[in-house]
């Protein structure tokens, strides 16, 4: 069985039945295609794919980060609500955040905080942060993620780098490691998985061809033998139907130095890496490890050509005993503060702030009232998000909650609105976008009536 970062799809073909995007993926003539690479690039230009490389880095905090302790503190609330942390002033007058985020406070002009995110499904699941929709029995495995839509609508910015890649670790709570998939758009648009899980030493199974390791990829005879050994069984999900394109993509991606270089942090200046901090590869129980330098990897992947990069970071389900919420916050808030600000600083230093959007969020918020274990429980009624880049209007707070941080009292924002904003930042006009699912029903990335968050654009 061949596993590799991206997956195949079906469209109108060229002279040997291969689709236009599949040829672009393998670099034209690498496997004996009928068009040269320059011809393919010209064909891509004629198809309307823009040359501008816009991108999104979607940072998911598994478990439900405590909005009331991070971005929406209530210092005047009763002690059983306000918690242990104090607010600090930021670079933007009138905006205060938790004292454990001093770096974000110093760069607040480059961030926007949404304090009124509503509509969470209430499940411990990355699905809604990857797709903009709650997981239901009807759409489980059916609805394409943001990255899948972008892959379909834009294709790769570079033939040797997948448009949709993920640094989401496979977690003990499987839904916390869900990076989205291709849904009805097809497996071609599912994410390239660049990391694995605890059981395989974090190595991605997407980087191994059966019988052929990356060290042997220069031996094309061995590689093609590996392809010949693939079991091509008929698969009702469509995975096997697209396997040929999958193989073609695998060859170009795994033999290209561009993706490999993006993952090689030894090419970064030591002082740059030092700003991000030091990785902790130990998995946090059933969550993800504290790999702070993956924030740098995400930026490098975007620079290499990725359009959507997703990642998960540690574990934020903290409602156990002994004040776990505040104990863990003291450990993880500073790590997040350092990693996110280093990422955004790099984006600005490289002139990417108009093109690369960053979002940091989790599946829901936390109860304003502290529980008997001196922690906070699940609270889907309200959560927050932190955003940066993408040419957005930053240095502001959007929305308000009531004095106890229980519900939105001003400008509630929904997940689809955030996704519409991200598509807008990517330069995708959603008005003409319509794709048909397997049943012939028209579908849209977000419903036509949903607009971007007006305050950001």
From TrEMBL:
The record's section on Pfam families has: DUF1501
**Superkingdom of this protein's organism:** Bacteria
What protein am I looking at?
Answer: DUF1501 domain-containing protein
């Amino acid at each position: 069985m061949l596993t590799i970062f991206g997956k195949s799809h079906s469209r109108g073909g060229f002279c040997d039945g291969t689709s236009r995007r599949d040829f672009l993926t393998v670099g034209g003539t690498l496997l004996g295609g009928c068009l040269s690479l320059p011809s393919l690039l010209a064909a891509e230009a004629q198809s309307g794919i823009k040359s501008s490389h816009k991108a999104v880095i979607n940072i998911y905090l598994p478990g439900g980060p405590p909005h009331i302790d991070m971005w929406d503190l209530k210092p005047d609330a009763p002690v059983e609500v306000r918690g242990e942390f104090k607010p600090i002033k930021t670079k933007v007058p009138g905006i205060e955040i938790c004292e454990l985020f001093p770096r974000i406070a110093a760069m607040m002009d480059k961030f926007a905080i949404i304090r009124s995110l509503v509509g969470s499904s209430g499940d411990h699941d990355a699905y809604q942060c990857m797709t903009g929709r709650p997981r239901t029995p009807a759409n489980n495995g059916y609805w394409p993620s943001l990255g899948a839509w972008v892959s379909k609508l834009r294709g790769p910015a570079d033939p040797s780098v997948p448009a949709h890649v993920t640094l989401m670790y496979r977690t003990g709570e499987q839904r916390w490691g869900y990076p989205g998939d291709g849904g009805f758009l097809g497996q071609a648009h599912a994410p390239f998985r660049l990391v694995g899980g605890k059981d395989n030493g974090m190595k991605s199974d997407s980087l191994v061809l059966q019988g052929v390791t990356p060290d042997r990829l220069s031996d094309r005879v061995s590689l093609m033998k590996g392809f010949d050994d693939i079991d091509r069984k008929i698969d009702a999900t469509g995975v096997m139907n697209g396997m040929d394109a999958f193989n073609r993509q695998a060859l170009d991606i795994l033999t290209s130095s561009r993706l490999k270089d993006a993952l090689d942090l030894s090419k970064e200046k030591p002082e740059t890496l030092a700003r991000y901090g030091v990785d902790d590869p130990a998995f946090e129980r059933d969550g993800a490890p504290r790999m702070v330098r993956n924030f740098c990897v995400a930026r490098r992947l975007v620079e290499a050509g990725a359009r959507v990069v997703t990642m998960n970071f540690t574990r934020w389900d903290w409602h156990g005993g002994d004040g776990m919420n505040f104990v863990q916050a003291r450990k993880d808030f500073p790590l997040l503060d350092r990693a996110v600000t280093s990422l955004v600083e790099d984006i600005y230093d490289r002139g990417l702030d108009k093109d690369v959007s960053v979002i940091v969020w989790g599946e829901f918020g936390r109860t304003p009232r502290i529980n008997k274990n001196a922690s906070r429980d699940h609270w889907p009624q309200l959560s927050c998000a932190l955003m940066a880049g993408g040419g957005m209007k930053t240095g502001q707070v959007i929305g308000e909650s009531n004095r106890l941080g229980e519900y939105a009292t001003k400008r509630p924002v929904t997940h689809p609105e955030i996704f519409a904003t991200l598509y807008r930042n990517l330069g995708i006009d959603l008005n003409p976008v319509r794709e048909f699912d397997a049943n012939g029903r028209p579908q849209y990335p977000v419903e036509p009536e949903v607009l971007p968050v007006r305050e950001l654009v």
